[in-house]
Automatic annotation (TrEMBL):
InterPro entries: ATP_synth_csu_bac/chlpt (IPR005953), ATP_synth_F0_csu (IPR000454), ATP_synth_F0_csu_DDCD_BS (IPR020537), ATP_synth_F0_csu_sf (IPR038662), ATPase_proteolipid_c-like_dom (IPR002379), F/V-ATP_Csub_sf (IPR035921). One of its GO terms (cellular component) is proton-transporting ATP synthase complex. Belongs to the ATPase C chain family. It comes from Malikia granosa. HAMAP family: ATP_synth_c_bact. F(1)F(0) ATP synthase produces ATP from ADP in the presence of a proton or sodium gradient. F-type ATPases consist of two structural domains, F(1) containing the extramembraneous catalytic core and F(0) containing the membrane proton channel, linked together by a central stalk and a peripheral stalk. During catalysis, ATP synthesis in the catalytic domain of F(1) is coupled via a rotary mechanism of the central stalk subunits to proton translocation. Key component of the F(0) channel; it plays a direct role in translocation across the membrane. A homomeric c-ring of between 10-14 subunits forms the central stalk rotor element with the F(1) delta and epsilon subunits. This is ATP synthase subunit c. The record marks 60 as: Reversibly protonated during proton transport. It comes from the Bacteria. Its main location: membrane. The gene is atpE. The keyword Transmembrane applies. It holds the Pfam family ATP-synt_C.
Length: 83
């Protein structure tokens, strides 16, 4: 039982950590591409900014879904058999 709980805690940490790293890298790449494209075509900056914020919200939503799954495993663990 302790082994299962330890591995679930490790999995929760990995879910949150890898999700945060992925979201950070995704937003950084997207922000860099936004700056490049707005420097090339300044007249498109307002349209690009709107699309960038929508995509940033979707990237963060994917990370928050991972956090919710990690919290599910941490507090309502489906791998522990209720006795």
């Amino acid at each position: 039982m302790e082994n299962v709980l330890g591995l679930v805690a490790l999995a929760c940490g990995l879910i949150v950590a890898l999700g945060a790293v992925g979201a950070s890298i995704g937003i950084a790449i997207m922000g860099g591409k936004f700056l490049e494209s707005s420097a090339r075509q300044p007249e498109m900056m307002n349209d690009l900014q709107t699309k960038m914020f929508i995509l940033a919200g979707l990237i963060d939503a994917a990370f928050l879904i991972g956090v919710a799954v990690a919290l599910l495993f941490a507090f309502a663990n489906p791998f522990v058999i209720a006795a």
